[in-house]
Each structure stands twice: as structure tokens, then as C-alpha cells.
From TrEMBL:
Protein name (Swiss-Prot/TrEMBL): 3-oxo-5-alpha-steroid 4-dehydrogenase family protein
GO biological process, one term: lipid metabolic process
Major site of localization recorded for this protein: membrane
Localization, UniProt: Membrane
Lineage, opening ranks: Eukaryota, Fungi, Dikarya, Ascomycota, Pezizomycotina
């Protein structure tokens, strides 16, 4: 373990590129953790404490890794390859400027599509709940209590989205849009400046804060692309993309199976979970 530098830059000391990438992350989770569950979603099913605990642990580790990266600390790897926190500052290339701009655009498009898709689902659930509430007879209202019926009318009301718009070919476009968000986040992360690029003097040995990590096989394509383009590899952001896809893809597959069981193949209309026309995915 290498001792970190006594110089710890504050948020305002960081380059604008680092601040931008950190802001993108905060914007996403402000929507995901506050706006969506408390203001957009008509209702939420109870979450088991185990699932909640694992989600908290994942987000703690993920945010800690990203925070260290955005602060500019080095992530040494075996075999070594350029990272966005490499020790020696170098002039920022036009490719980095292009990739970071494209990344910010992809993040914006992905987040907008994600919000649009989820809002469409929430609207469909509300409309279905209103229809069911309108069909209740006076006897049912009197027997069950009007206040109770009104309070729970959105609970466990699910619909299958019609085959139009973003749901024309897949059932989980909001997942795909979120993946697009994080791919854009990773591309924007190629512009993250290392700690050694800041104004305060920092020794090269103080930038690395952990033993070298052995590169996983699924990071090879990203490392190869970064090497070919001669840009830093935003390692923590790439790992986040991999984690997001591998975590959400099984949920999408299970969700498609649930749609088939609940609404039938005819209602699913041959749509894939995240890949058009693919019943397996």
C-alpha cells in the first residue's frame, strides 16, 4: 500500500473535466434516488432488506472507486496500460476532447431516453389504475372503503407497454438508455485529469493508493481501444459500465419471461428484452 499524498484537492481545486464527470454522476443519482421513486413512480413494491443491503454496499464501493479516480489517484494494473489517472501529465489531445464531448452528449441522450421510457411506463400504470378504479361498483366501494381503495389503487398495477415508440421493438428501453448513459460517462471520463496535473506538487509515488490490480479479460477490448486511440482509459468508469450491464441484463431477461407468463406471447409481440427480435435477450 502506498501512502497517499498529504495534498488533498477540494472539489473546487479539480479541473473542469473532473467536475463535469462528477456532476454527471450526481445528476443521474439525484433522478434515480429522489425524483423517480418519490415524485414520478405511482407506487413502489417493498424491497427485501437483503436486496437493499447489497445495493447500498455496491453503491458505496462504486462511488468510492469513482471518487478516488475523479480526485486523480492512480490505479496501477498488471499488465500496465494508460489510465485516466496516470502519473505523468501530458498535453490533452483533440481525440480526448472529441470523446469527452461525445460522451457528454451520449450521457444526456441516454438519461433523457431513460426518463422518457420510465415516465411512459408510469403513465400507463396510472391510466390502468384509473380504469380499474372507475370499473368498481358502488357495492365494492362500500364494502372495501372508498378511502382504502383510493389509497391503494396503484399498488401492484402492472401493464405491458404497447408496441409503439421506444417500446416498439424491445420491452426494456430504459435499461438500454441507462447503459448508453454510462457508456457516455466513461467516454467523458477520458478527459479526467490526474492528481499530478494539479497545481500543487505531488510526487509520483504518492499518486498510487493501492497495490496493482490484475486486468480482467473483459477489460481487454476497452484497454485495446484506448491504446489505439492514445487516450487514457477511465478504468473505474469502464468497470461501472460492465457492472451495470451484467447486473441489469438478467433482470431484463427475467422481466421478459414474466411478461410472457402474465400477458402472453401475443401481447409481447416478439419483442426482445433489450435486443430487438431476440426472445433470449
Amino acid at each position: 500500500m502506498v501512502t497517499p499524498s498529504p495534498y488533498a484537492p477540494s472539489f473546487t481545486d479539480l479541473p473542469m473535466s473532473n467536475i463535469l464527470v462528477g456532476t454527471l454522476y450526481c445528476i443521474h443519482y439525484f433522478n434515480r434516488a429522489i425524483i423517480s421513486p418519490f415524485f414520478s413512480a405511482p407506487s413502489m413494491s417493498p424491497i427485501h432488506v437483503t436486496i437493499m443491503s447489497f445495493a447500498m454496499i455496491f453503491n458505496w464501493f462504486n462511488s468510492a472507486c469513482l471518487a478516488g479516480w475523479l480526485r486523480g489517484y492512480k490505479v496501477p494494473t498488471i499488465p500496465s496500460f494508460p489510465t485516466a489517472s496516470s502519473g505523468t501529465p501530458s498535453p490533452r489531445s483533440a481525440v480526448v476532447d472529441l470523446l469527452s464531448t461525445v460522451g457528454a452528449i451520449l450521457f444526456t441522450v441516454g438519461m433523457a431516453g431513460n426518463i422518457y421510457s420510465e415516465t411512459a411506463l408510469f403513465r400507463l400504470r396510472r391510466e390502468e389504475a384509473q380504469k380499474r378504479a372507475a370499473k368498481k361498483t358502488d357495492g365494492e366501494v362500500l364494502a372495501g372503503g372508498e378511502a382504502q381503495a383510493s389509497r391503494n389503487k396503484f399498488h401492484k398495477v402492472y401493464v405491458i407497454p404497447p408496441t409503439r415508440g421506444v417500446f416498439r421493438y424491445i420491452l426494456y428501453p430504459h435499461y438500454v438508455f441507462e447503459w448508453l448513459e454510462w457508456i457516455g460517462f466513461a467516454l467523458a471520463g477520458t478527459a479526467v485529469a490526474p492528481l499530478s496535473a494539479l497545481t500543487a506538487p505531488v510526487s509520483a509515488s504518492s499518486i498510487a493508493i493501492a497495490p496493482p490490480l490484475r486486468r480482467a479479460p473483459w477489460l481487454v477490448p476497452a484497454a485495446w481501444a484506448a491504446d489505439k486511440l492514445a487516450v487514457p482509459l477511465p478504468l473505474p468508469a469502464i468497470v461501472f459500465v460492465v457492472n451495470a450491464v451484467t447486473n441489469m441484463l438478467p433482470h431484463a431477461r427475467w422481466g421478459r419471461k414474466w411478461y410472457v407468463e402474465k400477458f402472453g406471447e401475443k401481447a409481447v409481440a416478439g419483442r426482445g428484452a433489450v435486443l430487438p427480435g431476440c426472445s433470449w435477450m
